[in-house]
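PROTEIN DESIGN WORKSHEET
SECTION A - STRUCTURE
LENGTH: 182
TOKENS:
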């Protein structure tokens, strides 16, 4: 195999898309969802750039919506897409974005190109893509059990989450950001 052929082969084998998102809740448990233009609703997230780690990418995704003061907390979900329907598969991380005392349910950010809204869990199940709904459900369970959920193609690996309900979330409540929400 020629050198360029070998480089193409290894590039196709090891290249995967890596996404990182953050789960942000308001004081009543609604989940922050965003969408660009008329695209689908999703958890605030971004593609991990070269030289960037997933936690930093998740925090970067929150910046245009909630400002620079929002750090990404602990990892809640790791999802590995291996389904052949997706190009080379991908990896998705969801981090705890904490909770904010929201004074509004919807707003626009990033020069009106990003729509953001706190949605009830029921609304999330209707408006988010199925893979996002699976990651959201796993993230909420991981928060409750203080664990990390491991998924493959959006399905929880059996036995991957311990059953320890009743433990409080690890991420502290974030400072007031309602002035950023418009």
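SECTION B - SEQUENCE
RESIDUE ASSIGNMENT:
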């Amino acid at each position: 195999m020629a050198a360029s052929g070998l480089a193409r082969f290894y590039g196709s084998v090891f290249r995967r898309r890596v996404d990182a998102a953050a789960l942000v809740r308001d004081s009543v448990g609604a989940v922050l969802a965003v969408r660009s233009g008329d695209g689908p609703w999703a958890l605030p997230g971004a593609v991990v750039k070269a030289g960037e780690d997933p936690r930093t990418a998740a925090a970067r995704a929150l910046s245009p919506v909630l400002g620079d003061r929002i750090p990404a907390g602990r990892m809640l979900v790791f999802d590995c897409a291996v389904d052949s329907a997706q190009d080379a598969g991908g990896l998705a991380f969801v981090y705890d974005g904490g909770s904010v005392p929201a004074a509004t349910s919807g707003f626009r950010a990033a020069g009106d190109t990003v729509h953001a809204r706190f949605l009830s869990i029921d609304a999330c199940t209707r408006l988010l893509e199925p893979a996002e709904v699976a990651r959201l459900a796993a993230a909420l369970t991981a928060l409750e059990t203080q664990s990390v959920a491991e998924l493959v193609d959006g399905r929880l690996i059996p036995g991957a989450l311990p059953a320890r309900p009743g433990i409080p979330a690890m991420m502290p409540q974030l400072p007031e950001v309602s002035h950023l929400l418009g």
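SECTION C - NOTES
The mean pLDDT is 78.
Strands lie at 17-26, 31-36, 45-47, 75-81, 90-100, 106-109, 114-119, 149-152, 155-156.
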